[in-house]
Write a structure and sequence with these properties.
Order of helices and strands: HHH
Number of helices: 3
Number of strands: 0
Largest sheet: none
Low-confidence stretches: none
Shape: globular
Structural class: mainly alpha
Helix content: 40-55%
Mean pLDDT: 87
């Protein structure tokens, strides 16, 4: 299944978009129930959404946690 997830998984409070992929919480939660066409339509607007996300996540992201745990 196509997914824009890059394992950042932290939502920007200002825009409501994930810092990593640009999806909303609702889109992330419903991703597996969308058709391929619906997923492609959402993925087409994600680059524009990410232009508005200026801040970095305030908490440790899933990707950074996994990298840290793999170093141990």
């Amino acid at each position: 299944m196509e997914s824009p997830c890059i394992l950042v998984c932290s939502i920007d409070d200002k825009t409501g978009y994930c810092f990593g992929c640009g999806r909303t919480r609702e889109e992330i939660g419903a991703w597996t129930s969308y058709t391929s066409t619906e997923r492609r339509e959402i993925m087409a607007v994600l680059p524009k959404r990410l232009e508005g996300v200026e801040r970095r996540p305030r908490r440790e992201t899933r990707r950074s946690r996994m990298a840290r745990e793999n170093q141990i």
